[in-house]
Amino acid sequence: MEKTAKKRRGLKIALIVLAVLLALIVGALAFAGNYLFHFALDPEFGGMISKETEWDLEGDSAWLDENSEDRWLTSHDGLKLHGLYLAQPQASHRYAVCCHGYGSIPQYMGRSAAHFYELGFNILAPAARAHELSEGQYASMGWLERRDIVAWVDSIVEQDPDAEIVLYGISMGGATVMMTAGEAGLPPNVKCVVEDCGYSSVWDEFAGQLDELFHLPTFPVLDAASLVTQVRAGFGFKEASAVEQLKKASLPVLFIHGEDDTFDPNLRPPLWDSLDEAKRQIEYGLARCDVLKIADNELEFMSGEAGFDKGAAILRTKFPNIKLFNVTAGAEGSYSYYEDKRVFVPACKLGGTIETTGAGDTFCACVLHFALEHGLEGLMESDLHGMLRFANAAAYLVTTRKGAIRSMPERAEVEALLRRA
What we know:
Elements: H1 2-41, H2 60-67, E1 69-74, E2 80-86, E3 94-99, H3 110-118, E4 122-126, H4 145-159, E5 164-170, H5 172-181, E6 190-196, H6 202-214, H7 221-233, H8 242-246, E7 253-256, E8 262-263, H9 275-286, E9 291-295, H10 296-303, H11 308-318, E10 324-328, E11 333-338, E12 341-346, H12 359-374, H13 381-399, H14 411-420
Parallel strand pairs: 3-4, 3-5, 5-6, 6-7, 8-9, 9-10
Antiparallel strand pairs: 1-2, 2-4, 10-11, 11-12
């Protein structure tokens, strides 16, 4: 009896200790999650963003501030949002919506706005939630702002039904416009999206910051912060994904990222007033890119040579900055030139082609994927062969479907095709 009683007391003590430990762990996670939530998203907390910051406006920032007028919008959840609007002196149907970064203000989009303005665009620079004069208790890293941008676009279309709109954003603004691109109800007046250094998801962005600033693991700290954000702000970090939103988008998107630049001339003669001007602009891109994807007709146009090897040699000599030089030759296949290496891989010819729309874009996307995985240093012929084989297969799959961006295959589909081929 005494031994049994001791065992029961021991078990009871163990359970109490375990309960206390669990309570401490839960309490610590709740504290950490709540702290990170406020530190990252609450401008009143004194963490990474603050409405009390004194901004120095000079140059293009001052220009935008001094020449624009205030615009106001009420969001779907009742917040009063602020924006700066600058119209062209002569009537224009072209608009650029310029979205600022995390903790910034619309005026700091002045440099980009000035460039668009010189090209004849009217400028709208909205302030994100909880930034500058826009209301909002918490920032939402582009996720809730995606619906705000749709509302801003609606306001433009309401005043100008013929509007042609570009969405442009930097950092958090880049993520915002990517998230907006896949949003249902985005008017067709939006013609393209340009994102500069946006992030793939709020989770991925904060995971990097958590490691860099606090040297903490994502689990369970970021999970706790995401749960707090879900309760307090209405969204979770993984839910707020630019990648998932882009899967639903059908707009052309220009991604500006990293040190290695990629260029695809995509020459369309009817869109140019002068082919001489087209050549000058393409040369501008050739002089600044590290990775090139150029079609056979574009190669001849730029080099004056019909032969691929001769044409590539001329451009590679003229533009030595190009590290990886790729030529697509339609149904024939594709070529890659790297240092002293030359690789050719024939196209997939398995039948079933419906249209070729999107084949070049898909090929270029695969080359980008390869460059991100392998880098641009020390590539072997086998690497180049694998890159072209994969890109050719992906491009072929697109030709068997209708459409372009939405018809791009998943990696598993391409790998399955290569196993059969």
